[in-house]
Amino acid sequence: MPGTVVDSLQCEYQTNPLAIHSPRPRLSWISRTDQKNWKQSSYQILVAKSADALSKNSGDLWDSGKIASSQSTQIEYGGSSLASQQAAYWKVRVWADGAAGPVESGVAFWESGLLDRGDWKGQWIGSSVVGGPRTSAASPFLRKAFTLPDRRVRKARLYATALGIYEAYINGQRVGNDVFRPGWTEYRKRVQYNAYDVTTMLAGGANVIGAILGDGWFCGRVQGMDRQHYGDRPRLQAQLVIEFEDGSTQVLSTDPSWRTSTGPILISDMMTGEHYDSRLELPGWNQNDYNDSEWLPVKTFADPGIAIVPSLSPPVRVTKQIAPITPPKKAFTPGWGYSGYIADLGQNMVGYVRITVKAKPGTTVRIRHGEMLEPNGHLYTANLRSAECIDFYTCHSSEAETWEPRFTFHGFRYVEVAAHGECELINVTGVVIHSDTPETGSFECSDPMINQLQHNIQWGQRGNFLEVPTDCPQRDERLGWTGDAQVFIRTAAFNMQVAGFFNKWQQDITDSQTERGSIPMVIPNAGCGPDGGAAWADAAVICPWTVYLCYGDKQVLAEHYDSMAKFAGFLQVSSRDGLRGMKDLKANPGFGDWLALDGSGKTEGGTPKDLISTAFFAYTTRLMSTIATVLGKSDDAAKYAQVADTAKAAFQKRFVTPAGIVAAQTQTSYVLSLHFDLLPDAVRPEAAKMLVNDIKSRGNHLSTGFVGTPYLCHVLTRFGYLDVAYDLLHQKTWPSWMYSVTQGATTIWERWNGWTKETGFADVGMNSYNHYAYGAIGDWLYRTVAGLDSDPAVPGYQRLIIHPRPGGGLTHAKASLQTPYGLAASKWAIEGDKLTLDVTIPPNAFATVHLPTKDGKVHSDGLPAKSTADGTAEFEVGSGVYRFTATA
Predict the structure, then answer these.
(1) What distance in Å separates the CA atoms of residue 29 and residue 31, rounded to the nearest whole number?
(2) Of 809, 881, 810, 870, which is closest to residue 843 (Cα–Cα)?
(3) I want to staple 581 with a disulfide (CB 3.0 to 4.6 A). Which of 472, 571, 587, 780 is the partner?
(4) Is the dihedral of CA 342, 347, 352, 354 positive or negative?
């Protein structure tokens, strides 16, 4: 099988993970070859206790045997369960149709973590220093000196968690390159821990382990609330497990023998910012020769009784660094007495800035952040509401000093660096952070403005996928709003690998669910109410279903099926005669079509809330029927199908006339009715026509909000109005996707009119310039404009649907996606009257290709084609690279 390799071995979406709890973790790999029509016919997985045993082809933990199957993702380990901290080494052999022998992968491994609560030997420790509901306390520094025998270390693992966030150090070296560990969870139920390989960081003799704690989400400000939402101060639990070459072990855990002090971090808060006084630094505090005799004993805390689980979501990391697009300008802030500089980073980003400044000792430098500038050139911060978003750094010498914060983040494009008195800004760099979800997709076309829109969508995702899918990264909110996440998740799965990210968040949803079965509007629930209402709470079903479609991940459906069923049960008991929420006045009617422009100034838009609620009731229970079918629960599938049918009938009776006129006659009322298949077949064409008439009556403008916008162009395409969808895409006056692009936006705005030439800034009470919900149009760009889609009957892109729909004056478009099987791509171009379509199908996958043609004349290198009802030529192809041509 020349030219074929098997690589990208992953366990639970991770490469060589160190803390797996599942007794049946899922294994995946990718085959790469230049051969066309390559299909895996069989595989064999070998798992061994050591790499040496595996090199001898001994599967002493598991030998799957030769399995006749094309499956190469989500394969459950079938061997004996691993003990805590045990390693498993694995490789796979792959056979292909028509090949004489197998291709063998390299070796990968996974390790189990601390599987049982009793495996954690340490105590929760922290400082006696504590802040209050409005004031933050200085960040605790913790350390423990210890001695190792002069024996060679074979393996060392640090297992660490915090209520709050932490940075760990061993012998002066930072452990890991992630930030804000262990992340944000529903702390009332569970906290995550992290595992690190620290083998090379230890030495015989004197050693020291240390940590710095930050307030984070646990006791810092969450939303616009006071501090200490979950607890009063941060605390740490850690365990260093060392194995020596002679087989002996040594374990060091957090206990009362650790010591603590405070240092230069006076305030660390996600929204307030970080205050750092470098005069209070503790030089060498994390070195083994440091004298900590003046430090105090740590305070120990009772076990909170919550689960400690490994983090399977990708960690937050620094992913990019951005320099200002022009030299910082001198600035002065009236009323403050500060003078300094304003820097334009050219990109609305999320993270913090690294500054190098030179000033007199004791000078405090103030770093403010904003997304926009006022007309007079001053920093615009009114939309931040109560979030100060200000960092302070106090200098300790007259030399140049470089600093960046540890435990805070901001959403901004512009940075103001200022001080009382003289201060020279030598350098400023924007440090971009987000959950490290690797980029998987790309889209590009002949229109530079659409390409900028795609850029803005990606940066909106980059900025808001930070531990949870937040609604905005700059003001006093930054919460995991369910509605925003569910409308955007399909676009998100094109742009980046988000399976682990959303699987973790799905656990947060389950943990935040109420006893009645309702789903809060924000996850984790920061006290914003028990029921998110229609389109928001439904994320509990829509998001895992989308993960299944995009990654073939059946386990997320199985693990959270009881939670989804509980939610579906809540919908049923709170509804009356198929109308959602009409029986239970405690049920939230929802946020309507949030920020739609058809409601006489109302933020919830003009589409009736009960219409939206019932439409999503029918849609969600229909999904539940499909999910039950996937999981082999036939009785449940029939039950939910009946519930969905009842809701559909109730929808038609209450909201639809015999002529197909839908209540309120808003764009969203028609979009939901058509997209969710809630109308009788006979009146659907007329309903689609009424939708189009409304769009044209508005001068080819949309009026939809968060609920209707994601489906709008899909509905227009489906019902034969592709030209209208393109008109909406190209529209440059507001409301439109392109209006913000014409105004220089580099991320997606929360409001269609976040800023306009006529009125300036929109309502400062709620006006974000980095808010990804309207970026859901990205899904349509990938699936319709470029034509790169998957077959829902064969999830995870093993079967692709390539169906580009050129239009809108575009002369070319292309999209690519790193699927679970490898790279897939669709690229089309029009030159004169010739349409060329180039297609890439990854090995072990196949596709149906639809080639638009005006006269039926196609060229396809001899591949047989069949005509379809929509006038395209259809081809069935296996893996490989293909070119098709037709008359444009």
Answers:
(1) 7
(2) 881
(3) 587
(4) negative
Return d(Cα 454, Cα 780) in angstroms, integer: 11
pLDDT at residue 334 is higher than 60: no
* Contact between residue 520 and residue 514 where contact means Cβ atoms under 8 Å apart: yes
pLDDT at 97 over 90: no
The DSSP symbol for 783 reads: I
Give the model's pLDDT for residue 335. 60
CB 25 within 8 A of CB 86: no
Predicted local distance difference test score (pLDDT) of residue 699: 98
- C-alpha–C-alpha distance, residues 185 and 328, integer Å: 39
Task: Determine the longest span between alpha carbons in the chain, in angstroms.
Answer: 87
Residue 477 annotated to the active site: yes
- Among 460, 502, 535, smallest CA distance to 777 is for 460
Cis peptide before 182 (omega within 30 of 0): yes
Q: Does the active-site annotation cover 750?
A: yes
* Stated pTM of the model: 0.97
Task: Give whole-number Cα distances, 533 to 296, 466, 540, 585, in Å.
Answer: 50, 24, 11, 12
Is 114 strand, coil or helix?
Answer: coil
Q: Which of 371, 477, 559, 874 is catalytic?
A: 477
Residue pLDDT, tens place only, 263-306: 999 999 999 999 999 999 999 999 999 999 999 999 999 999 99
pLDDT, one tens digit per residue, over 755-786 is 999 999 999 999 999 999 999 999 999 999 99
Question: What secondary structure letter does DSSP report for 7?
Answer: E
Q: Which of 274, 416, 467, 750 is catalytic?
A: 750
